[in-house]
Design goal:
The complex is a heterodimer of chains A (about 450) and B (about 250).
Chain A (H helix, E strand, L loop, with lengths): L10 H13 L7 H17 L14 H4 L12 H7 L12 E6 L2 E2 L13 E5 H6 L3 H6 L9 H9 L4 E5 L9 E6 L6 E10 L4 E9 L7 E10 L4 E9 L5 E10 L4 E8 L4 E10 L5 E10 L4 E10 L5 E10 L4 E10 L7 E10 L5 E10 L5 E9 L3 H8 L5 H17 L5 H18 L1
Helix pairs in contact in A: 2-7, 8-9, 9-10
Chain B lengths: L3 E10 L2 E11 L4 E5 L6 H9 L5 E9 L2 E2 L5 H6 L2 E4 L6 E5 H15 L7 H14 L4 H5 L1 E2 L5 H15 L3 E5 L7 H14 L5 E6 L4 H4 L4 E6 L2 E6 L2 H9 L2 H8 L1
Parallel strand pairs in B: 3-10, 3-11, 6-9, 9-10
Antiparallel strand pairs in B: 1-2, 1-4, 4-5, 7-8, 11-12
Classes of the chains: A alpha/beta (about 450), B alpha/beta (about 250).
Chain lengths: ~450, ~250
């Protein structure tokens, strides 16, 4: 007789267990990696999908939102690769070095892997796992919180991803673009990337996630990013998934001293989106700008959960997240700034703002400060409201029609966050994407 | 035909009647001044003409160039040639002044079936007009009215008016908050636009502005009605005697 308490498993939980038992022998990596996969899956098996009684997932009840689990994506066929050539439109004509992933696997012939800048190495996670790469073992799982179920599932199932290393002092002008796209099959992908930017190196990393409208595929993507002292890193995540997609992604980063770190998340796609940012400021004197903009409509649900952990002293962080919600969309922002006992002189300010275009839209904002040092400047704010009728009237009184007046005000609202992006071409591409979203709204 | 014809206009805000049977006729090319004490309904008249929500006409009618003004949306009124210079111009963070000006101008031109201005044409027009109003390029690079002083905001209103070339401009206490130098610049900006086919309704509490923008007709608005109409001498008379007698007349 079994004395364990059996929790009732949802269809998705059962399907994930089946998928893991079928895939465990085929997934890349040696025994040590296999053991990590098992441990990660065990955590999931014990806890199940996160639900509303888990504080971190209070507003994104994945157990309810994830009705089923899709089979693991098969390697892309020729047709899928051919279609992937058309992907990446959200970036406009920004000049980038592309690493293209189709159905969770890197496609070398679509990627720019030649003539790498001095100091830059790029590999695939699947390859690194198969090769028992010691650098991989040293970094994998060091930053992504093991207790997070989304991360645990990623660790259990990770198939491929990018492994990027930039040598000390190296600067690469051309942004690295990790482009994740999927074919029309409703499948699940688990990609995991490792990015190591050494001391005083400089790079821009763009990850974009896209797929077909109408296909209910599932994406679980994670990046662990290590930034050395004096590094300058711009990270941009574009969540442009198809209308029916479920997207869970995690950026876990540790930033060294006197570094510059900027991150921007742009969310326009996906049916259910959970965007997780776990950022650790390990070294003193670092300046960080963590921003994001989400444009949501229909029944979209998008959650940004951010933890900015100030461990070292004299760091500055600015967090600004803007969400525009139309129809029945549901936006969630959970932001926590932690200031550890030694992180004196921390200067951290977090703001989250929601613009509700419909009375049926919902915005939940939960900013938190946990401060253990006594000489800091920290603050947070949250606002939610409709468009300002006075401003709209002023614009209309100058001859601007109602829809165009609203579009101007919405662009202005989101633009404040977009301005934080240093790359001018990318700013323009995102503003154009916003303009498209507004045109579709009319 | 008159450009603006207001007949027996009654207007409520939140159920409270502010305009109580106002009559006003403005012919093309004329400058009418409307003077009156605080609370007489001056700004209500300005807003109801421009089409602000919550300003509800309950009786009477307004014809603008023969068309029913209340059948038009605020942007349609603007495209038809109505301009309101706001007493308190709004700050619009995130909307660049040049984007705002260009969007407004082109929206109006489009509605009138005219071609959009080319970028060089537009830039030249803004630069030339801004120069005459003492608005420098740095101000034009900022978001609309953000960080502008009170006087700069008023000059920006006149800049918009000069670019949009309305047929009827309603200036709502454009003189408030201006020092004498700024007042002169604003008045010169208005006077440059005076033309046989363009009319002005200048709403003001004080006679001072009318030294610089000389009106053809002066009206006294009190308790929601025009209670006296005269020539430009009436403004001077009001300056000397104050508004008290008009408030009493209506009460009596």
């Amino acid at each position: 007789m079994n004395a364990e308490v059996a929790t009732i498993k949802t269809a998705a939980e059962t399907a994930l267990a089946q998928a893991f038992s079928q895939a465990r022998g085929r997934l890349p990596g040696d025994e040590a990696i296999a053991a990590r996969r098992e441990a990660a899956f065990d955590l999931f098996a014990k806890q199940g999908l996160p639900h509303r009684r888990i504080e971190e997932w209070k507003y994104t009840d994945l157990r309810a939102l994830m009705r089923d689990a899709k089979p693991l994506a098969a390697p892309p066929d020729a047709a899928a690769k051919a279609r992937a050539k058309a992907a990446g439109g959200l970036l406009g004509d920004v000049e980038v070095r592309r690493l293209v992933f189709v159905d969770g696997a890197i496609v070398a012939e679509l990627s720019d892997l030649d003539n790498l800048e001095a100091g830059l190495t790029i590999g695939s996670l699947a390859q690194a796992l198969s090769d028992d790469d010691p650098a991989l073992a040293a970094h994998l799982g060091k930053l992504a919180p093991a207790s997070d179920i989304a991360v645990a599932l990623n660790t259990a199932f990770m198939g491929d991803g990018a492994v990027i290393h930039l040598a000390p002092g190296a600067t690469i002008e051309r942004p690295l673009h990790l482009l994740f796209t999927v074919s029309e099959k409703p499948a699940a992908t688990f990609v995991r990337s490792l990015v190591v930017i050494e001391r005083a190196a400089r790079a821009m990393l763009i990850e974009s996630h896209e797929g077909r409208a109408g296909t209910d595929y599932q994406t679980n993507a994670a990046i662990e990013l290590f930034a050395g002292d004096g590094a300058h890193i711009d990270h941009v995540k574009i969540i442009g998934e198809g209308t029916d997609a479920l997207h869970v992604s995690t950026l876990a980063a540790a930033i060294g001293a006197h570094a510059r770190f900027n991150s921007f998340t742009f969310t326009v796609g996906g049916a259910v989106v959970r965007n997780q940012l776990f950022l650790r400021f390990d070294g003193e004197g670092t300046v960080a700008g963590i921003r994001g903009a989400s444009l949501l409509k229909g029944g979209q649900h998008a959650d940004t959960t951010l933890v900015a952990d100030h461990i070292a002293h004299d760091c500055q962080s600015r967090e600004l997240f803007k969400t525009v919600l139309d129809d029945e969309a549901h936006g969630v922002f959970q932001g926590r700034i932690i200031v550890r006992p030694h992180a004196q002189k921390t200067d951290a300010k977090m703001m989250t703002q929601a613009l509700l275009l419909s009375e049926r839209a919902e915005s939940d904002n939960k900013p938190e400060l946990e401060i253990f040092a006594d000489d800091v400047q920290c603050g947070h704010g949250a606002t939610a409201g409709a468009l300002d009728d006075e401003l709209k009237f002023y614009l209309m009184a100058r001859g601007i029609p109602a829809a165009e007046a609203e579009a101007l005000l919405i662009q202005a609202f989101v633009g404040e966050a977009i301005e934080g992006i240093e790359h001018a071409g990318l700013r323009e591409a995102l503003m154009e994407s916003i303009a498209n979203w507004l045109r579709e709204r009319d | 035909m008159s450009l603006l014809e207001i007949k027996n206009l009654h207007v409520e805000i939140d159920g409270k009647e502010i305009l109580k049977g106002l009559d006003l006729t403005v012919d093309a090319g004329q400058v009418h001044a409307i003077m009156g004490p605080n609370g007489s309904g001056k700004s209500t008249l300005a807003y109801v003409l421009a089409g602000k929500e919550d300003y509800r006409p309950t009786a009477g009618k307004v014809l603008f160039d023969g068309r029913d003004l209340f059948a038009m949306e605020p942007d349609e009124r603007a495209a038809a040639g109505l301009f309101l210079a706001f007493q308190y111009p709004l700050e619009i963070p995130g909307v660049a002044t040049m984007t705002f000006l260009r969007t407004a101008l082109n929206a109006q031109r489009k509605k009138r079936g005219e071609a959009e201005l080319s970028t060089p044409e537009f830039l030249k027009m803004v630069r030339d007009t801004a120069g005459t109003l003492g608005i420098d390029q740095e101000m034009l690079r900022r978001a609309v009215n953000v960080g502008f002083s009170g006087g700069e905001k008023k000059r920006n209103e006149i800049l918009q008016m000069a670019l949009l070339q309305p047929r009827l401009a309603v200036l709502d206490e454009t003189d408030s908050g201006l020092d004498i130098d700024a007042l002169k610049i604003v008045a010169e900006g208005v006077n440059r636009l005076r033309a046989p086919n363009r009319s002005f309704v200048v709403i003001t509490h004080y006679q001072r502005l009318l030294n610089y923008i000389v009106p053809d007709v002066v009206h006294v608005l009190s308790q929601g009605r025009i209670v006296r109409t005269g020539g430009k001498g009436l403004a001077l008379e009001l300056e000397a005697s104050g508004y008290a007698q008009y408030q009493e007349e209506v009460l009596a």
